[in-house]
Amino acid sequence: MLGHSHKSLLDALDLHQNLLHAEQQAISTRDLNIIEDILKQKDESLQILINAQQTSTENYPPEIESRISSILDQQKKNTLNFRKLHIQENRTKDGVAETNPIFKRMRKAYFN
């Protein structure tokens, strides 16, 4: 049975995983405005996740360990896909991406 702190952590993991899925969809459709919105939400979600993790014990049940691994894997995939998008955008727009403020913020988020 999961304790209250583990339940809070699972809820935070659910929220973050949903945002990663939405981000994946936005990357696949190349919608930089939605990606930017999702990045803001992910920042807030990450803070919720950190707070939930800090109130939980260090020994997580396998269910939580699995969820954390899944989220980290999805984040890596999204980062890789965005980097591919960045390369394609630079090729197709020939310099426009360098001056686009949204694209600059995206690059900062995914390349740091």
Oligomeric state, counting identical vs distinct chains: single chain
| Poorly predicted segments | none
How many domain units? 1
Order of helices and strands: HHHHH
Globular, elongated, flat, extended or rod-shaped: what is the shape? Answer: elongated
Strand content: under 5%
> What integer is the average pLDDT?
78
Described by strand count, sense and barrel closure, the largest sheet is: none
Give the radius of gyration.
Answer: 16 Å
Topology, number of strands: 0
* Approximate helicity band: over 70%
- End-to-end distance: 38 Å
Number of helices: 5
The helix/strand class is mainly alpha
In short:
The protein is mainly α. It has helices spanning about 5-30, 30-55, 60-95, 95-100, 100-110.
